[in-house]
Amino acid sequence: MKPTCFSYVYCLLGCLVAHGADKKIDHDVVIGTLHGQLRYASEAFAVKPGSQVRVTLDNSDEMIHNWLLAKGGKEDLARIAEEALQLGAEGMKKGFIPDDRAILASIGLVQPGKKGTVSFTAPKETGDYPYVCTFPGHSLTMRGIMKVSEDPENAIAQANKIVAENTTPRNGILEVGDEPRVVRVHVKDVDSGRSIAVGLPGGVNYLFDAEKLMVRFGWTGGFLNVGPDRKGRGGGTCRILGEKFDVGATEFPLRIGNPDKAPKARFGGYSRLGNPAFLFEVDGAKVSQTVTGRPGAKALTYGFRVKNASGDVYLLLKGEGLQVSSTAGNWSPKTGVLKVPKKQAAEFFVSLERK
After folding, report:
1. Which of 39, 41, 71, 231 sits a CA distance of 20 to 30 A from 63?
2. 257-274: burial string, b at 16+ Cβ within 10 Å, e else
3. Backbone angles phi, psi at 61, to 5 degrees
4. What is the mean pLDDT of residues 73-102?
5. Does the pLDDT of residue 206 top 80, yes or no?
6. Structure confidence by residue, pLDDT tens digits, 114-145
7. What residue ranges define each of the domains in the chain, with the CATH number in brackets?
8. 160-183 burial, b for 16+ CB within 10 Å, e for fewer?
9. pTM of the predicted structure, to 2 decimals
10. Are 261 and 271 in contact (CB under 8 A)?
């Protein structure tokens, strides 16, 4: 019940802070969530300049979400998302809504099956204003646009015509559009036959090793050249495009109870809906891991959901040269171990940035 109270309090604060809360509503907008996909059900809506707007976040998902409207572009959203992550233990209390001048309105944490509402005055300047969920690990894919236009109906009609970039290989080059792209590949210089390459919108990519249950590395820029692989039929190794960066990879990095003991682990596949989730078991605990990136930085954020852990949870990293922060537990750069108490391990996020 306590998190629900936080959700209610911060939704109320958002209503009090936002302008126009006591005026006649011109646009009443309801934004739902797509179950398990880390996406809003409505990713665009349009309003008139200076109008009174009420937004309701209807969270039908099984995860906690929030809603934050800002001015600016991708760089501003990336900064705000990082500021939310840096709130650390204070994040839950503040709804993972940081103090940033680019924020125009917000709804704090909304529990699964609940709703949150905020009212505000739309900007007078026409244009696109992005919104995002800043709960750690959600910001890369959980986004949308509020279009401010003198003709809202036409503006939203035009927005609905926008389609993802063409992802058909050209000369062996795989590109990434507006959705994450997941490809089973044999990558040059990687000693694993169970590699899964993931391209994320924004130009941050990573390689997950389903054999050793770890992210091997990340890279920025282009995605993959699959030409040598003879159209995916195993004829040769693929090449990553862009600039590779190390993420402190360690074999079987997630461990239960004892960080020094190699676990009994089993890979259970992955989902393709929205941002992919990798499923596996570690010493009887069921784990779901997601990965997001921060455009413009050599950085990844791991999201872990752990069920039935028999003890504390440990994440092993080769931490030299990495900046590491987590929403739970304590990180030791000296030992390269993040220790998350069992009671905090149900869901936590770890941000890694290569300096």
Report:
1. 71
2. bebeeebebebeebeeeb
3. -80, 175
4. 90
5. yes
6. 999 999 999 999 999 999 999 987 887 788 89
7. 2-160 (2.60.40.420), 173-354 (no CATH)
8. eeeeeeeeeeeeeebbbeebbbbb
9. 0.58
10. no
